Amino acid sequence: MHLFRRVAEQLDCFHAQAAVSRDHCGTGLASDTRTVLPTNLGNVHGWRGLPDHPVWLTWFGEPYASLVAPHVGTLPLLRTAEHPNDAHPLPVPSELQLSGFRNVDGEPEGTPARLVPLALPAYRPPPARDW
Prior knowledge:
The protein is 15% helix and 15% strand. By secondary structure, the protein is α+β, with helices and mostly antiparallel strands. The strands form 3 sheets. A 3-stranded antiparallel β-sheet has the order 1-5-6. The protein has a two-stranded antiparallel sheet with strand order 2-3.
């Protein structure tokens, strides 16, 4: 937790999250019967929103801190459970959350958040390709 906090402070993060994955292998998070592969919260098309799945540790810097403070209490570091296995979804309104997990190909699915801080570029779907 101390390392997570220090890295988030040093990088001046607006959002960071920590998860513990069982049976980790390779360069990505492994998905087994006990874990869910996290959704991409952002990509080259913009910020998609906060996670809707259980997150053990979350860091909220600006511009998110002022939006989530009324809902989460103590900031900037939020721990949803004592132990990572008991993590809960973030106690924030659904309009701040990206809904959905990755599909079997690892591609993000779900609906982008309806509310994204103005300082962040909101997600815009890529243009359709007309082949």
